[in-house]
Amino acid sequence: MGLINPAKEVMINKIDIEDFPQIFEESEIGDIGTLKLEVRKGAVPVCESPRRFPVGVRKQIKQELQRLEKLNVIRKVEHPTEWTTNMVFVVTPKRNRVCIAPKKLNENLIRNRFITPTVEEITPMLSKAKIFSVLDAKKWIPSNEVTS
After folding, report:
1. Is residue 142 part of a domain?
2. Which of these, 47, 57, 73, 119, has the minimum number of CB atoms within 10 Å of its CB?
3. Is 105 within the bounds of a domain?
4. What's the rounded Cα separation, in Å, for the pair 83 and 100?
């Protein structure tokens, strides 16, 4: 019937990272500033005991922690703190990861509640857009500031 005319060619413009150095840093981890975390009044701090790691991975753990410290993702603390959580070291074929699960801290944070916009709400804003990008938030880690 000829009602639909499929696009014969899709034009994809690749923007060179070097054209926008203020947006793309050399770091593989993005930085969007400091995130302020507020702890509920009266919350009882929890210090979890550190886990023991096999001797065979301790060097890898130290290297990964030093790398994250160099990228300003984490900060070395050499004094007692009220809140601590266990660390897990995940070994993968491509790369090793340091993970934490601050469950007790998360339970005591004051949450900022907001409604995520729906596709129907966002679509009209995209009608005249010409350039789209993909954000991989997998490696983004904010600087955290905890206040009580």
Report:
1. no
2. 119
3. yes
4. 13
